[in-house]
Amino acid sequence: xxxxxxxxxxxxxxxxxxxxxxxxxxxxxxxxxxxxxxxxxxxxxxxxxxxxxxxxxxxxxxxxxxxxxxxxxxxxxxxxxxxxxxxxxxxxxxxxxxxxxxxxxxxxxxxxxxxxxxxxxxxxxxxxxxxxxxxxxxxxxxxxxxxxxxxxxxxxxxxxxxxxxxxxxxxxxxxxxxxxxxxxxxxxxxxxxxxxxxxxxxxxxxxxxxxxxxxxxxxxxxxxxxxxxxxxxxxxxxxxxxxxxxxxxxxxxxxxxxxxxxxxxxxxxxxxxxxxxxxxxxxxxxxxxxxxxxxxxxxxxxxxxxxxxxxxxxxxxxxxxxxxxxxxxxxxxxxxxxxxxxxxxxxxxxxxxxxxxxxxxxxxxxxx
Length: 368
Prior knowledge:
This protein is of the alpha+beta class. The chain is 61% helix and 13% strand.
């Protein structure tokens, strides 16, 4: 019976077709068995024809045997139908359901049949694949938001430190009249610029889902004004780290169109890194020309190791430094992403005379 079913390739038939086929085969088999049972009963009747009591038990026995044969045929047909058409796909679907309930989506459902159960398994596999895709999308979204929050906290630290430095400066010198009115107004204007920048940055970070979504808003600014802002921040950062600071400039134009807040964000990350690793001095060279505004930040420290040169721009790379409160391994990664947003680049190298050397460049006139 099993060989016959396999030969007929029940897997290619629908459930209804398979059920009808099994019914027909079972009916034929039952009829054959019943025919043999009637012959057996007739042979017994002829054999004991001289005994009148034979008819009293033979007919009820025959009816009972026929009914039993029919019942056995029905049970056999149901068992074969379940075994060949339902058992395997139901087991597959049950195991898949248990894995999905356990949030395990790293599996595949395969059942090589063209019937309704095969189609159900294929639909279930499509559902599993979509769930896995949605789960991965949600996981990436959560990870991107976590990374964005870490970046947000990281980048707030430097401008707040700069503002704190200016506040301490005013608090220390203003009561004793050791600061001129011109210097006081200049300091307040610089602090106001940093506050506006923080407001703009906070608003942007609240509206984006990942760092790559940060908008680039370029505006025209005089070269000297931008460099003055950058140098003021650099002095505050290096002073707080006990390092000296110097800068130089090579410029072909007096006005450039860049995203000032973005450029300051990149610059401050570079200065913070340089001040952390420098032995005593941090130098900055500005270059304005050939369509790019470039900033090269160099320190007199030990420089980058071979591994750091390859991995420095990866997110959360800390090198050999581990300080959960101060260093999150995000600085150069943030710089790289933001430079690329401004259609520029970030290059990490070692100086000719030692120390780290990082160059950030920004394309003129980018406005997205």
